[in-house]
Write a structure and sequence with these properties.
heterodimer, A: 741 residues, alpha/beta, eight-stranded mixed sheet, 30 strands, B: 258 residues, alpha+beta, four-stranded mixed sheet, two-stranded antiparallel ribbon, globular, disordered C terminus
Chain lengths: 741, 258
């Protein structure tokens, strides 16, 4: 048979077509698919012995119990500890990704110095000795009088053992100032303490027994206080009789997550919270809905002849007057006030939006006054005092610098500012710290491990070991009604370039010739911590909960301080025993400052009443918004891009929302870009229309930005906080703005 | 594992939308558990990978009557006429008869994305990029789940590896049935409000069955007849109406994204 060229082509073509009727090509494709799953650059998970370890989260002051699933010594998953007496099993999204933080691209693994290079700011490596010498030189100049100012340490999680080290060090240096910021959940409580005649506290909210919470912007359901505790209370509500259920009233200009889930949302005009609080007080007094006998016995400024008393202040804020300022109807103000009295015990919680714009001092004073008027302090279901954690470290303030809240530090007074790495979860604008620094020659040192947030402005960065890398202690969160204490034992090794803050303080003290008390008592930070644990053991108070077996035993059953240390360092939490509620001391309803009457009077008119510029020229109110715990100085897991970037569930820096009607009236488009301009500057934002936003308000997210997750470059884009007016009360909650397409 | 003569399960979940605060813990926990990489700088809501995605939607009323709610949307685990199974040319999507879980098998996937087109719930995600973690962070990967590569589709599988682990534990103890407490997906475990109840819908005594029969429970796009095993519930009528919304056009979808 003769085979032609044509036959050959027919055979090949027929074979090719026929092959498609066999499994061969499909098998080849299948194999190729399988083979191509195994490129060498596709990461492979670690394999090894699976272990469970326990620690405590230190990313904010809540101190949630953490169960870590580890491959060998490497944590691969963090979850909450279900029976934990403080956090009750919860762990927020920030905590769930905590084990990623040591590997963040923004991590500083060794000391760096801020330098200007070709007109750009960069961070260049520097030795620890050189950084310590620079700090010591600045302190020596202060000691010798060559320069003026103070030395300050900013501690956002006061009450820890390292806090005691800072305070003792600052007592030893000239003009040492130990600076704190209001903790989430503690803002109103701190203000309240300042209104009492005698030390009474620390204070906490008895949320489990209260019937009504009037929250002024506090993100109760979005990271406030100890989130697990709040969630546990909310979860338990449905099983209660309707009469016994907790009622949450959220007073807030924006439809926050808490406003959405509150029983009532009272949408007030931005910056008018003080007017509403004083209006509510007016109704309570005029309808005789307060404990007249208690106020007569305890309050020293309820009524006074000089007509500058609480009564005189409140008298001006009739429901009609307050309605005109707040935008809330007089009937609703009256009904809310009556509800507070009828559904007692009631607690008034302030704070505002700690992730974006917290309330000012005057608002907090008005809210603390409302708590006192309602008789909510020193009673079950109200605000109660708790015992402090046995200290063992600071026995008197004569040996330690007292805490000074940042707003009370004089402007232009700090020469050397050391930023501790711990986070309160609250946002702090750099402008707030900058105004406290001397105008020339200030030295700012950050102990943060991440080149982000406030650290971007530091001259030196001496990175401390980050979360999961060092031994820390965790005292009771601000909202707690009983003291607690746990350790955060490290789960992994710190990099060689990281420096423990204890070691840094010791080195600076040695370099400056300052007698450092702690060094004589404790060679290492662990020794220092052990003294505190010993004090707890010696107190014989409370119980110890062991994470690993879920059992709780009385502290009296723990044989020695060493045994207690062992339990705590393997994951354990000490909780104080319940005590009788102490009788409340006398108080001032206006606060102790002489000019509070006038300040509250002005604040009662609304924060925008004295803002510069005509309303018509600006047209909008800028409200910075943020998520507590995610907009501060700390770093977030790159996996948080799921929330910020890939789903839009949370807002990235520069994303703004306006009411659709307002947006259209000002020529804006949904999804378009716009310029937001205030007295402080301008920035471009991406606008979204959302009917949940109050008309004439533009809500601009504080952050983070996409770059914060993915690149090591440090200078970030302009932030909403840069546009805000920082007023005398250290609040930046509302600012007039012009918005143009 | 041989599943013959064993009890047939039908795992599902009920998500209480009145409890979901939109915190996003489920999304992060899911990504940690399933080795889903962080977004690249270019990733958007259309190209990112979030096996369970929480959407915000509202009642459409103006301020101040406007109210929003959050809805976590994982793979709905269709029980009948499963669209993704029907269209996959590679048999890369299978329904596990023993558990009722719709499983995606990445090694078989060719990346044709027919399944993504077919899925009425938009719960399937394509790997547009190679999975990349910041240097060192690959050490934190879950050893029980293989990372997928560029060019394949993936989706929620109710943390199937946890079911395998629970089965192994039961087998080691000499039993055949798992303890329900041993099998909870990562999102369920992480939800701080307890909004997600997970369990066996085939077990009439289970909590999840009880909630699914609740008069306030509903499923997404029930009229399609896909019999999803993810139920939602809410006491608010306007929230329940979300179930009947059609697939939205891009502009409407953006609004829902909030």
């Amino acid at each position: 048979m003769k085979i032609s060229r044509r036959d050959l082509f027919k055979f090949v073509g027929g074979s090719a077509v026929g092959a498609f009727l066999t499994p061969v090509p499909w098998k080849l494709i299948d194999d190729a698919a399988i083979w191509s799953q195994n490129w060498s650059w596709i990461p492979r998970p670690l394999h090894g012995e699976i272990r469970t370890k326990f620690t405590t989260c230190t990313l904010c002051p809540a101190g949630c119990g953490v169960r870590a699933r580890c491959v060998g010594d490497q944590p691969v998953m963090l979850t909450g500890v279900v029976q934990h007496p403080v956090s009750r099993g919860a762990l927020c999204p920030v905590g769930l990704g905590g084990h990623h933080l040591p590997y963040h691209p923004r991590r500083a693994a060794q000391p760096v110095e801020r330098v200007q290079k070709n007109g750009k700011t960069e961070f260049a490596p520097v030795t620890l000795d050189a950084a310590v010498a620079a700090i010591a030189a600045a302190i020596s100049d202060l000691k010798t009088g060559r320069s003026g100012g103070s030395i300050a340490v900013l501690d956002q999680q006061p009450g820890r053992s390292i806090s005691a080290v800072y305070r003792q060090f600052l007592r030893s240096v000239p003009n040492g100032v130990y600076v704190t910021t209001p903790n989430s959940g503690g803002d109103t409580l701190n203000t309240l303490q300042g209104m009492l005649d005698k030390p009474y506290g620390p204070l906490g909210y008895d949320l489990e027994n209260t019937r009504t919470i009037l929250s002024f912007g506090a993100p109760l359901l979005d990271g406030w206080g100890t989130p697990g505790r709040v969630m546990e209370i909310i979860k338990a509500q449905k099983s209660l009789d309707p009469d016994k259920r907790l009622k949450i009233i959220q007073v807030e200009a924006r439809q926050s997550r808490t406003a959405l889930f509150a029983d009532e949302w009272v949408a007030v005009n931005p910056g008018t919270e003080a007017a509403l609080a004083l209006g509510l007080a007016h109704v309570l007094i005029h309808e005789d809905l307060y404990d007249r006998d208690l106020i007569r016995r305890k309050a020293d400024d309820f009524r006074k002849e000089d007509r500058r008393s609480y009564f005189d202040l409140v008298e001006r804020f009739t429901p009609e007057e307050a309605a005109g300022i707040t935008g809330v109807s007089p009937d609703r103000i009256i009904a809310t006030a009556r509800g507070l009295a009828q559904r007692a015990p009631a607690i008034v919680i302030g704070g505002g939006d700690p992730g974006g714009g917290p309330l000012g001092k005057e608002e907090e004073t008005a809210l603390a006054g409302l708590n006192l008027l309602l008789g909510s302090v020193g009673r079950v279901g109200g605000i109660v005092s708790r015992r402090d954690v046995p200290d063992g470290l600071i026995h008197s303030n004569s040996k330690a610098a007292p805490p000074t809240e940042i707003s009370n530090v004089p402007d232009r007074s700090i020469r050397v500012l050391i930023l501790d790495a711990a986070e309160s979860g609250n946002v702090i604008p750099w402008a707030l710290l900058e105004k406290k620094l001397v105008p020339q020659g200030a030295v700012v040192v950050s102990l943060s491990s991440y080149l982000t947030g406030l650290t971007r402005h530091a001259g030196y960065i001496i990175p401390a070991p980050t979360y999961l890398e060092s031994l820390q202690d965790v005292p009771a969160p601000a909202d707690a009604t009983t003291a607690s204490f746990s350790l955060s034992p490290p789960l992994m090794a710190a990099p060689a370039g990281a420096t423990e803050p204890f070691e840094l303080v010791r080195r600076v003290a040695n370099a400056t010739g300052v007698p450092f008390i702690e060094e004589a008592k404790a060679k290492t930070f662990e020794d220092h911590l052990k003294r505190r644990v010993e004090a707890i053991h010696n107190s014989k108070r409370g119980h110890i909960f062991n994470y690993s077996d879920g059992k709780t035993v009385s502290i009296a059953e723990v044989g020695s301080a060493d045994q207690l240390w062992k339990i705590l360092s393997e994951g354990g939490c000490w909780v104080d025993s319940k005590t009788e509620i102490k009788p409340m001391p006398n108080f001032s309803l206006l606060g102790r400052a002489q000019n509070n009457f006038e300040r509250l009077q002005v604040a009662g008119q609304g924060r925008l009443s004295k803002a510069p510029g005509p309303v018509a020229a600006f047209g909008f109110v800028l409200m910075p918004i943020g998520w507590r715990g995610a907009t501060g100085n700390g770093q977030l897991s790159p996996l948080m891009t799921k929330l910020y970037q890939e789903s839009g569930l949370r807002k990235l820096s520069g994303q703004a929302e306006v009411n659709p009607e307002t947006g259209k009236a000002f020529g804006l488009t949904d999804g378009g870009r716009a310029w937001v301009e205030t007295e402080k500057g301008a920035m471009q934002v991406e606008v979204r229309f959302d009917a949940a936003v109050m008309p004439r308000v533009i809500e601009v997210a504080v952050g983070p930005s996409v770059e914060d997750f993915s690149t090591a470059e440090t200078p970030g884009p302009k932030n909403a906080l840069d546009l805000c007016n920082l007023d005398e009360s250290c609040t930046w909650r509302v600012t007039r703005a012009r918005v143009t397409a | 594992m041989d599943t013959k003569n064993k009890k047939q399960h039908r795992y599902g979940m009920v998500i209480d939308l009145d409890k979901c605060t939109g915190c996003g813990a489920c999304m992060v926990a899911c990504a940690v558990e399933n080795n889903i990489p962080p977004a690249t700088a270019k990733a958007t809501d259309r190209t990112g990978i979030t096996w369970v995605r929480v959407y915000k939607f509202d009642n459409g009323l103006p301020f101040p009557q406007n109210r929003s709610a959050y809805i976590p949307v994982p793979c709905q685990q269709c029980g009948e006429h499963t669209p993704c199974v029907s269209v996959c040319p590679q048999k890369a999507v299978e329904i596990d008869a023993a558990s009722g879980i719709v499983a995606q098998i990445p090694v078989r996937c060719l990346g044709c994305r027919y399944c993504m087109t077919a899925c009425p719930y938009h719960t399937r995600y394509f790997n547009w990029w190679d999975p990349v973690w910041p240097a060192g962070m690959e050490k934190t990967l879950n050893p029980d789940v293989s990372p997928r590569m560029r060019g394949v589709v993936e989706k929620c599988n109710f943390c199937h590896e946890r079911l395998q682990a629970a089965r192994a534990k039961a087998a080691a103890a000499g039993g055949e049935e798992i303890d329900p407490k041993d099998y909870q997906p990562a999102c369920v475990e992480a939800c701080p409000t307890g909004a997600i109840t997970f369990g066996d819908l085939a077990d009439p005594d289970s909590e999840v069955s009880r909630l699914a029969q609740d008069g306030q429970a509903f499923r997404m796009l029930e009229k399609l007849g896909t019999e999803p095993k993810v139920y939602y519930r809410s006491e608010q009528a306007w929230v329940r109406q979300i179930a009947q919304r059609e697939v939205q056009k891009p502009k409407e979808k953006e609004k829902v994204h909030g």
